[in-house]
Amino acid sequence: MEPQVRDNTEQSRFEISTEAGLAGFAEYQLRDGGRTVAFVHTVIEPAFEGQGLAGKLARAALDTVRERGASVLPYCPFIRGWIAKHPEYTDLVPADKRAKFEL
């Protein structure tokens, strides 16, 4: 089974799961009536580290935000670093906030 990412809106986090269960999550806070998604913390469980799941989680979460027409505030260091390595996602961060996040 390919890892699956879903938006668990009840817990305000995107979750990535494998056949073995929940592998990790990226917590967020909705702002501006849902028009902005502030990512605050990302966790990959130790048993799942080194499998590229954090990157898959970041990509899927950011793609979902893009599909919804929302913007991103990457307070989470992992999400911020991932965006920095994948500049095609920089446009999700409002132009006037990019310097704050060093993007």
From TrEMBL:
Gene3D superfamilies: 3.40.630.30. Residues 6-94 form the N-acetyltransferase domain. Pfam families: Acetyltransf_CG (PF14542). It comes from the Bacteria. Transmembrane segments: none annotated. InterPro entries: Acyl_CoA_acyltransferase, Gcn5-rel_NAT, GNAT_YJDJ. This is N-acetyltransferase domain-containing protein.
